[in-house]
Amino acid sequence: MRRRGGDYRWPARRKFPNALWLSLCGFVILLFVLVLRRVNHRPTSRSVYTKRSPTHERFTDGLNITDEMLSPDSLTRQLNDQISLAKGFLVIAKESNNLQFAWELSAQIRNSQILVSNAALRRTLLTISESGTAVRDMALMLFQAQQLHYDSAAMIMRLKAKIQGFEQQMSSTNEKSSKYGQIVAEEVPKSLFCLGVRLTGEWFRNAYLQRKLKENRQTALKLNDNSLYHFCVFSNNILATSVVVNSTSLNSKNPEEIFLHLVTDEVNYEAMKAWFTMNTFGGVTVNVQKIEDFSWLNASYIPVLKQLQDSETQRYYFSDSGGDNRTPIKFRNPKYLSMLNRLRFYIPEVFPSLKKVETCMETFHRYQKYLNYSHPLIREHFDPAFEPFIDPHLIEKGAVLHFNGNSNPWLKIRMEKYKLLWDRYVDYSHPLMLQCNVR
Ligand SMILES: *[C@@H]1O[C@H](CO)[C@@H](O)[C@H](O)[C@H]1NC(C)=O
Ligand SMILES: *[C@@H]1O[C@H](CO)[C@@H](O)[C@H](O)[C@H]1NC(C)=O
Ligand SMILES: *[C@@H]1O[C@H](CO)[C@@H](O)[C@H](O)[C@H]1NC(C)=O
Ligand SMILES: *[C@@H]1O[C@H](CO)[C@@H](O)[C@H](O)[C@H]1NC(C)=O
Asked: What parts of the sequence cross the membrane (predicted)?
């Protein structure tokens, strides 16, 4: 129709006066409306329902929807009520795996919806002759549903219980996975253990290394030199310490003015000495100490140590069973009570002749215990963002890059995308790294 109208257009415009053109247009529109009406009157034409939304908003002029829905004998209301009920039963039928019944129900729902929307479109009431069958068929289905003991209220309760079950399952899974994550995170990976063992062996085997360290007078001279920049690293992780030393050296203007005091434990002492003697780091001076050599560090002096020596505490932190299961594993892990983690609070005692010492914090979240994060100044400078998506520019600009917990780059569960930042400072081609499969 439209096309024909369009065809008329050009010659009409040129040849006929405006009045004639307008009446032609009017005629075309009239024809169009007539055709539409005819289409609407075809009662079961699906395409019409899909094209025009079958909502009840179309009861506008002739019908008052409120009146209709409150009327005791309105067929539209009856059909609507049946549809609502049937939808509930449909869910139950599917849930009970009665797919045949579900299919029949949904066919019936569709049938009734078509009738309702049909009436809505033509804005007249439904007649008993057109909808009687549908009302009866649906009533039969609903009766069958009741025979099957379908009960919406009971079903809602059942679904609710199910959801609660899922929620419980999820929270227990989360708890478990966080526990496993913690365990994986705490465990020293095999490769790092291997590195420690090999380096220790190397230290005892290699007299040259021992001599080199002993004969290095520079270190002894600089140890208490207050004109240098002194940093302390408390760690039992050789790889991490190496990265800290290497990146500090590579990113400083004058590495010669930097003195790094490494404090480790008995187990890693020789390995650390071996590594930092066999490698040079662009002029920075490195000195390795072990915590066991600090005679001042005794129970009468340090309350934490006293606590660690207490048998009750030891049982709580070091035995793998017993205790309150609800305590987060983190707080049951000896690592969190390790003296290496505490030492930074005793820096003046560790380095009595140094007036001022910077620390490289190993566990950032410990700040939270000691700093007031509601204070705007502290938040501005210390807010540790435990965030997996960090703007790369922010990382490039940062003075210190802190990896933590499960994201630590030496772990299997690390975040791969940040590992490159770390890899820059690791010599993976070193024979010992290769032998131990450090990656
Ligand atoms: C529909 O009927 C109700 C109750 O009879 C009335 O309050 C309402 O104003 C009517 N609505 C329209 C749009 O006529
Ligand atoms: C513990 O350390 C303090 C302070 O350094 C010292 O005075 C004391 O003698 C030490 N006690 C023991 C038992 O070593
Ligand atoms: C932390 O800082 C806020 C804001 O400065 C202050 O109101 C609050 O008292 C502080 N809390 C503690 C425990 O110091
Ligand atoms: C330190 O980093 C540099 C630069 O990436 C690297 O070439 C070197 O092997 C690293 N040294 C050690 C001992 O890891």
From this structure: 20-39
